[in-house]
């Protein structure tokens, strides 16, 4: 459920155009639209239904109509009981029967129970019950991470191996891969270094290409790849849970091996390397930077560059220069003032401004000139 948008406006009622079998737009007077979802799906009245007011959903991707309720009041009652799940057609699919939405069906009951828990469960009630505590954390992931700091919210109460084992058991239920990936990243974000041995075991299994789906998901067992694991998740877990001196070389070697196997130019591995926030990444990426530089600038800005790094890039090849110009404006708030406020930093500021002004004088494209001026302003105003 990604959108709770729902409403109607009498002034916006219209008979939308639909495509016929030949792909031509055709006027029609059967379906009267009363609300458009953010993704382009429609809620409509079916004027040829019994009573002329059945509510149907139209999916813009599938060009398919689905009955939601025989009348507007019935639709309002059903959608309210389902927690106003929105107007996107795919949000309705789990709850549909031939006569429309069924709030009391198996999926409806499960969804309403989850929504009730989300609204009513408090940490104090579930903290000592590990399965319930993990369900709570998954429901409130962003808030819990800010509450938990390094994950002590869980590890102060439960053994880290037990936490990982119980969390992975939740992945036995059939669910989308995206859920599995988010759960793995949540384990890393909550437990950090307490999950280091588990992450090491995953790297070992990934290297051996062992993935036996029949074996139980047990953190104490080596060589088990959990569902949802891919290269990006593996790299992010290394950044979250391993010391930089261990995790970063693992990721860099893996990136180089994958690029060599594909025989293609290295693409900016922003997702894999940005979490490290490591200056060691800067030297590594320099031979790989090329046009289009988008992504390389983001990675440079995220890797805690010093003034000498920016100066070196501004003196480098064209792609490096443009990436550095863009990165100066992308630096996290406070980083540029900090690196130019150090003792004896005035010569570095002066050199940055000299290089930027020289590049501006030689620039031809208006977009390039604007980017350089933005970087000059950032350096000048710190």
Question: What's this entry about, in short?
Answer:
This protein has 382 residues and is of the alpha+beta class.
Major beta sheet summary: 4 strands, antiparallel
Number of folding domains?
Answer: 3
Mean pLDDT level: 90
- Name the shape in a single word: globular
Number of helices: 20
Widest sheet: strand order? 3-4-5-6
**Regions with pLDDT < 50 over 5+ consecutive residues?**
210-220
Q: How do the SSEs run, as a string of H and E?
A: EEEEEEHHEEHHHHHHHHHHHHHHHHHH
Radius of gyration, taken over Cα atoms and rounded to an integer in Å: 27 Å
**Multimeric state:** single chain
What helical percentage do the residues reach? 40-55%
Descriptive terms for the model:
3 domains; about 375 residues; two-stranded antiparallel ribbon; 8 strands; globular
Can you tell me about this structure?
- Helices cover 52% and strands 8% of the residues.
- Mean pLDDT is 90; it is low at 210-220.
- Strand 7 (96-97) and strand 8 (100-101) form a beta hairpin.
- With 382 residues, it is an alpha+beta fold.
- The strands form three sheets. The protein has a four-stranded antiparallel β-sheet.
- It is globular, with a radius of gyration of 27 Å.
- Helix 10 packs antiparallel against helix 11 (231-241) and helix 15 (296-302) packs across helix 17 (318-330).
- It has three domains: 10-116, no CATH class; 121-244, no CATH class; 284-380, no CATH class.
